[in-house]
Every structure is written in C-alpha cells, then in structure tokens.
Amino acid sequence: QTKQSQSQPQTQQQQGAVATDNDAHRSVAAINKLSIGFIGHSSLSTKEGWENYEYILRTYQPLAVQFFAPSIVYKHNDNFDNYHSKNKNDHNDETNVTMAKKYGTKFIAQVGSIQEAQEAMRHDVDAI
C-alpha cells in the first residue's frame, strides 16, 4: 500500500468489524452520561430499592438524578417501616444525595415547601 492509502481513516464498516462487547458497554455508558433519572422517593422504601438505586448509579453512571418531593431520603439501618423518619435511631447518615455523589452523579431535588428547600440545601444538592 502507498503511504497515502495507509493514512486514510477507517470506514464505519471497518471500525464496526473491530468493535468488542467492551466497546459497546463503553458506548452505552457514554450515552447514559447525558441522561437524567426521575425517581420517586418511595423507590427507596425498601432494602432492595436502595440496592437497585446503587446498582443504577454504579453501572450506568448517569450525569444526574432527580428525586420528586420530598427528595431527601435517609437509608435506614434495618427498619424500613417508616422511611421518612427523622429519628436518628432509625437511620444512618447515608442519604440518596450522598450515595449519588459517591458515584459522581449530580443530584436535583424537587421540593414542595421552603422547609424542604432548606433541607435540600443542608444536604448540598446540586440543583433545586
């Protein structure tokens, strides 16, 4: 081949022929960086809900998540019967905000009152 033909870019067909499953996963992750998830606070009312939320954050790494009001949810230690409880004995310090930030995801909080906005600000959300 001449030097000129060697330096020509690959066609899409040639590029596709060398793609691997790993490349496809990276492409999906890149697309997901553009997406925003809309999540109801009741999604975190069970242990399985928290596991699913963390799986989505870890696997798909969305750019941002938005929770409907009330948007700040505490992860409970064992008792999920009253997941809106503010009683420190019922939950640990992890929230849906801290978990999102752990995976580099921005957090958008929907609020329905001044008190909810103040709480969102205390939790250092990225947008209200």
How are the strands ordered across the major sheet? 1-2-5
User: Main β-sheet: number of strands, strand sense, barrel status?
Assistant: 3 strands, parallel
Please state the average pLDDT score. 75
Strand content: 15-25%
Kindly list the characteristics that best describe this protein.
alpha/beta; 128 residues; three-stranded parallel sheet; 41% helix
Topology of helices and strands:
Blueprint: H1 3-6, H2 12-17, H3 21-32, E1 36-39, H4 47-60, E2 64-67, E3 74-76, E4 91-95, H5 96-102, E5 106-109, H6 114-122
Parallel strand pairs: 1-2, 2-5
Antiparallel strand pairs: 3-4
Question: In a nutshell, what does this entry contain?
Answer:
This protein is an alpha/beta fold and 128 residues long. It has six helices and five strands. The strands form two sheets. The protein has a three-stranded parallel β-sheet, covered by helices on one side. Strands 3-4 form a two-stranded antiparallel sheet.
How would you explain this protein's 3D organization?
41% of the residues lie in helices and 16% in strands. The termini are far apart. It has 128 residues and is α/β, with parallel strands linked by helices. It has helices spanning 3-6, 12-17, 21-32, 47-60, 96-102, 114-122; strands at residues 36-39, 64-67, 74-76, 91-95, 106-109. The protein is globular and about 35 Å long. Strand 1, helix 4 and strand 2 (64-67) form a beta-alpha-beta unit.
